[in-house]
Amino acid sequence: MSRSFIIFGLLIVMVIAAFVYYKNTYFPKYNWNPEYTTSSEQPYGLKLFYSTVKKNQTTTVLYNQAYHLLDTNQTNGNFIFVGDDFYIDSVTALCLLKYVEKGNFALISSNYSPLEVLRNFVPLGDSIFPFSEKRDSVIDVDFTKDTVPFPKKIKFHYQSFKDTVGTYWSLYSTKYFIDTLLSYRFIPISTLNDSGINAFYIKHGKGKVIVHANPTLFTNYYMVHQNGFEHANNMLSKLHKGPTYWDDHTKVQNKDSRSTHVNPLKFLFSHPYLKWAWYLFLITIILYLVFRSKREQRIIPLMPVNINASVEYTKAIGTLYFQSKGHTHIANEMYILFLADIRARYNLSTDMPELELVEILSIRSGIDKAVLYSLFKKFKFMRSTAEAKSADDVIDLHNSLDNYYKKRK
Fold first, then answer.
1. Could you tell me the domains of the chain?
2. Tens-place pLDDT, residues 284-300
């Protein structure tokens, strides 16, 4: 083996050693994204809170929305959900309410309003909204006096790595809550920054449904501090001391900036054997490139570049539709794609009445309701067959739709 190969091999070893040192020194040790799982020891995992509940009460974990396992003959029991979004259908919600009706309590803590549960207590004419978010780095949670072990204001800050940063905290509008939801016997438990309702409950049969708007406050980072312990103790004091069901499946983690991105390399480096297998793989590839880099086959002749004609084909089809004045057909295709985008991006059902769809879409997309009403009105006009359509109408519809796509969240 020549001296150049020896030197090159030593350089490779030095580079790998430098990388390992840099990784161990500067790579973040913790994942600061929310992980609402009972096994997660990361700052925003739920292992400590789950351990606290399990230590004090007999706990059964439910998977795959197995709500049929809820014992409806049981009384003085509990149901607990802590996650990003309490994503269940109306049938599952009725199963849960049947369990609560017998005298059990349900604690639902999610960043989004559990609509399938709450709409059973509010007439169709009224909405659970406004359910909104407030961006701040430090908040105060104030509990209703004389109803919890720690009635003082509890201060929280949102931590990311070594810094206190701003984040979105969920809340229910205080004015709307007092003016509307109190009339349906929604009782507040705690407020957030005196500007919104953080938790409330509603009686159902002999039991209660307790809704909490910020599941992050139950995570490991806060539970190891006095303020997190006091907050968790206050909320748990609202529950029975009996058996508890813990829902560990009905979670939607992928919501805008709250979503958790799982890095494959991070998974590899979290296990020593996988980590060194990865290093061995890299060393093998490098050695192969060094010793097998000499060309051993004839030069591959250049082939003509493939031309992607899909764009030209689309333009041609569009031109044919436009020239044949098939404006209604074009509008129908645009409407189908528009509804498909709403279902995929905002997880909304497009089968609901148009007024209700516009209300919810306006909140989630950040687009003013008047703009959305105008867009749906233009679609309705273009898709009707009673009136003649012009090319200018198609262009106007396209410009309105393009403006919506550019400005939405």
1. 3-29+263-284 (no CATH), 47-258 (3.40.50), 310-407 (no CATH)
2. 888 777 776 665 666 67
